[in-house]
Amino acid sequence: MGQHTPPLVRKIFRNDNIRTQIFSHLSPRDIASLRGTSCRIRKTITPAVFQNLTVTFSALSFSSDRLLALTRVGHYVKEFRFVFPHTEETYMPSMLDPESRKLRSLIYEPFSRQGEKRRKRNTFGSKSIDSLALHNYGIMLMAAMDGPQFTRALACMENLTSLIVSCPGTPMGEPGRRCVVDYALWSLRIAVERARLHALRVVILDPVHLTGLQYLLPGTLAVGNVINSRQIWSQVKTLTMTISAWKELANGSPTLYKTNLKFLHQFLEYFTNIEELAFCWTREARSICPLTLDLLPYRNPRLATKPARDRSVVNKRLTFPKLSKLRLENIGMNACDLRSFLSRHLTYFREWSLDDVNFTSGTLEDALKPLYVASAYGEKLDNFSFPRPLTEESELHCPYCESKFEAWLMV
Question: For the chain, what is the total number of helices (H) and then of strands (E)?
Answer without folding.
Answer: 19, 12
